[in-house]
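Support request from a user on the community tier.

User writes: "When I paste my structure tokens into the form, the page sometimes reloads and wipes my input. The last time it worked, I copied everything first. Here is what I submitted, just in case something in the input itself triggers the reload:"
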């Protein structure tokens, strides 16, 4: 447990430093194309949980479209940025800072979860399992989780801060979620263009999963 607590502390420190910068590459206004496609195809329903929301890109986009959505992130700086963007918005979304492996409350609250970059940041089996269990607990029956995770098919790399870049295997997704009650409806692997940590677009292999709460 101590190693896991250290990893969470390291994650929080890493993301706090990321969002201290005025040039954080992930702080952009336009929605991610994958999220926009999910919305366009009518995949999103009910109350939505944005896991690892950062400075609010997805949360604010969907809130503007009228969705009831909560954004949660481990970084206080990210949440502060996100809240500043809600000034002057009618019916603004809520944002909270929390460790998503140990989020309390919100039992049976959500119908849809979007994870655009949270799961792949967890490097320990226990943390991945705790995360999957947390999402299961906060979701209602028949809820759907849409997950995108950086694949281990990419060349293993290190961030400029020294933090290992995400690398997720198919087995890690299957084991973490199925043993915590989730049913895998789809799990696909493909190469897409993503915004990198240096602000440059690059080709990356990703897992795309659709999971249902049994």
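"...and here is what came back when it finally went through:"
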């Amino acid at each position: 447990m101590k190693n896991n607590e250290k990893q969470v502390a390291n994650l929080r420190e890493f993301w706090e430093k990321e969002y201290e910068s005025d040039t954080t590459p992930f702080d952009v206004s336009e929605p991610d194309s994958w999220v926009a496609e999910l919305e366009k195809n009518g995949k999103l329903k009910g109350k939505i949980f944005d896991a690892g929301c950062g400075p609010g890109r997805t949360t604010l986009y969907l809130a503007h479209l009228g969705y009831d959505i909560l954004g949660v992130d481990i970084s206080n700086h990210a949440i502060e940025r996100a809240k500043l963007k809600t000034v002057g918005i009618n019916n603004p979304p809520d944002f909270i800072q929390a460790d998503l492996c140990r989020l309390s409350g919100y039992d049976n609250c959500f119908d849809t979860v979007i994870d655009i970059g949270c799961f792949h940041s967890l490097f320990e089996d226990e943390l991945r399992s705790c995360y999957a269990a947390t999402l299961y607990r906060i979701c209602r029956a028949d809820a759907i989780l849409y997950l995108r995770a950086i694949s281990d098919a990419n060349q293993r790399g290190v961030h400029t801060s020294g933090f290992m870049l995400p690398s997720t295997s198919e087995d890690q997704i299957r084991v973490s979620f199925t043993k915590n009650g989730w049913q895998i409806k789809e799990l696909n692997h493909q190469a897409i263009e993503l915004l990198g940590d240096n602000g440059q677009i690059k080709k990356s292999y990703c897992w795309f999963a659709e999971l249902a709460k049994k």
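Agent notes: The reload is a front-end session timeout and is unrelated to the input. Confidence is low (pLDDT under 50) at residues 158-162. DSSP finds six helices and seven strands in the chain. Escalated to web team.
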